[in-house]
Amino acid sequence: MQPLIITVAPTGAELTVDQTPHLPITPKQLGAVAAKIQEAGASVIHVHCRDDDGANTHSVERFAAAYEQIRANSDLIVQFSTGGAIGMTPQERGAPLQLRPEMASLTCGTVNFGEAIFENSFPIMRGLLREMQTHGVRPEIEIFDKGQLKNARRLESEGALRLPQHFNFVLGVPGGLDATVHNLSDLVDNLPPDCTWSVAGIGRGQLPMSMVAIAMGGHVRVGLEDNIYFSRGRLATNEELVARVRRIAREAGREVATPNEARTILRLTQREAVATGEPASRP
Ligand code: KMH
Ligand code: ZN
C-alpha cells in the first residue's frame, strides 16, 4: 500500500474560539500549527483564514500572510479552501487562488449544511475551476453526497475538469452522507479511474473513518475543522489527532507520507500548465 497521506484541516469556518482554545486563527498560529502537524506526520494542510477577532475572511492579504507563515515553518502541501464560509460570494471564495497554492478544495455540488445551504452550482464550480487553471492550482474534489461524483464526471465531460484528481469524501455533515463504512466503500467503488482518495469523517466519525481508510489503502483528513474532540468530552489539538492516526497506521503496517512523497502520490510534482502556457515550478 502507498504511504498514508494525512491532510489536516486545522481551523475551518464554523468553529469559534469559545468552543475550543486550540483553533489556529492568526497567520502566526497557522505557521506554528503547520510545524507541529508536519512533525506529527501530516503532509497536507487545508487552509481557512480568520481575522484577528476570529471572523471568517477570504481576503487575499490574509491568505498571503498565512501562506507565508506556513511556508516559513513547514514543507506541507498547502491547499486553500474555496468553500470558505456560508454566505461568501463565489468571487470571494476564489480570490486567494491568485496566490497560486499547490492545491485548492472544490466541492462538487450544492448540499444542505446544517440549517444552511452550501452553494456550488455548475456556474460556481466552473468559475472556480477556471481560476484554478489560470493560476496552475490543482483541485481536490470534495464529495459530500453521492450525486456529486456524477457532477465531477459531468465537469470532466465538458472539459472543465481534468481527471484523474484527488477526491476527499466528507462524511457526516448534516445534509450529506453519513460517516459509515458502507457509504465510504460505495463512494470508493464509484470513483473515476486512477483517482486517489481520502476521507474526512465529521465529529465522532473521524476516528472510525480514518481507521477504515487506513485498512482500505486510502488517505485520511483529520483536524479541528471536522472534529474538536480527542475522546468524549476531551478537546483535541490538531497535532494530537495526526499523531493518533500515525500510530494506528504504523500498527497496520502503513507509514505516513512525507510532503514530498505525498506530492508524488498526488502527481503534484509538475504544476498544471498555467493560462500563459508556461508550466510553473512550485513557489
Ligand atoms: N465551510 C464550509 C461551508 C471547503 O473548505 O472547501 C465549506 C468547506 C469546504 O469548508
Ligand atoms: Zn474547509
Q: What's the SSE blueprint?
A:
Layout lengths: L5 E3 L18 H14 L3 E4 L1 E2 L5 E2 L2 H14 L3 E4 L9 H5 L8 E5 L3 E3 L2 E3 L3 H14 L2 E6 L3 H12 L7 E6 L9 H9 L6 E6 L4 H11 L2 E4 L6 E3 L2 E2 L2 H14 L7 H7 L18
Parallel strand pairs: 1-2, 1-12, 2-5, 5-6, 6-9, 9-10, 10-11, 11-12
Antiparallel strand pairs: 3-4, 7-8, 13-14
Bound molecules: (5S)-5-amino-3-OXO-hexanoic acid and zinc ion.
Zinc ion binds next to loops.
What does this structure look like?
This protein is an alpha/beta fold and 283 residues long. It has helices spanning 27-40, 60-73, 90-94, 122-135, 147-158, 181-189, 206-216, 238-251, 259-265; strands at 6-8, 44-47, 49-50, 56-57, 77-80, 103-107, 111-113, 116-118, 138-143, 166-171, 196-201, 219-222, 229-231, 234-235. The strands form four sheets. Strands 1-2-5-6-9-10-11-12 form an eight-stranded parallel beta barrel, surrounded by eight helices. The chain has a two-stranded antiparallel ribbon with strand order 3-4. Strand 9 (138-143), helix 5 and strand 10 form a beta-alpha-beta unit. Helix 1 (27-40) packs parallel to helix 2 (60-73) and helix 1 (27-40) runs parallel beside helix 8 (238-251). The protein is globular, with a radius of gyration of 17 Å. Residues 273-283 have low confidence and may be disordered. The structure holds (5S)-5-amino-3-OXO-hexanoic acid and zinc ion. Residues 12-13, 81-83, 85-86, 105, 107, 113, 118, 142 line the site of (5S)-5-amino-3-OXO-hexanoic acid.
